[in-house]
Amino acid sequence: MKRQRLAGIEKEMARVISQALLEEVKNPKIKGIVSVTSVHVTEDLKFADVFFSVMGQEDVNTDEVLEGLNQIKGFLRKRVAEEIEIRYIPEIRVKIDDSIEHAVKISKLLNDLKR
């Protein structure tokens, strides 16, 4: 499958999953503290790695959030199937994206070096 088509599917999946998290998910472990940062779909559309960012990671147990996301990944796949018309709906693999936290740490280190 062409990379351009895969990019469109990834973007649409991110939109659908973000909307479902915002409006439909009621799990208190993840409600309001996670957001979708990116989606990567394999070329054969069998798997989709969905990367989530956790807000306020200092006081939030990321293992509990990951567990909560794994509990609802079937629901998220169902929502994707309802919204996107593609032949194969990828199996969702949940991953925590810590790149934002990592960037903040590097920024703090660089600011400390300037002083």
Oligomeric state: single chain
Tally of helical segments: 3
As laid out across the biggest beta sheet, the strand order is: 1-2-3
What percent of residues adopt helix (DSSP H or I)?
A: 40-55%
Number of domains: 1
Major sheet, described briefly? 3 strands, mixed
Q: Any idea what the shape is?
A: globular
Distance between the termini: 51 Å
GO biological process, one term: maturation of SSU-rRNA
Subunit structure: Monomer. Binds 30S ribosomal subunits, but not 50S ribosomal subunits or 70S ribosomes.
Keywords: Cytoplasm, Ribosome biogenesis
Protein name: Ribosome-binding factor A
Report on this model:
- It comes from Fusobacterium ulcerans 12-1B.
- Belongs to the RbfA family.
- The protein is an alpha+beta fold and 115 residues long.
- It has one domain (1-113).
- The chain is built from 3 helices and 3 strands.
- It has helices at residues 3-23, 62-83, 99-114; strands at 34-41, 47-54, 91-96.
- Strands 1-2-3 form a 3-stranded mixed β-sheet.
List keywords for this structure.
115 residues; three-stranded mixed β-sheet; 3 helices; KH_dom-like_a/b
Set down the secondary structure blueprint.
Blueprint: H1 3-23, E1 34-41, E2 47-54, H2 62-83, E3 91-96, H3 99-114
Helix pairs in contact: 1-2
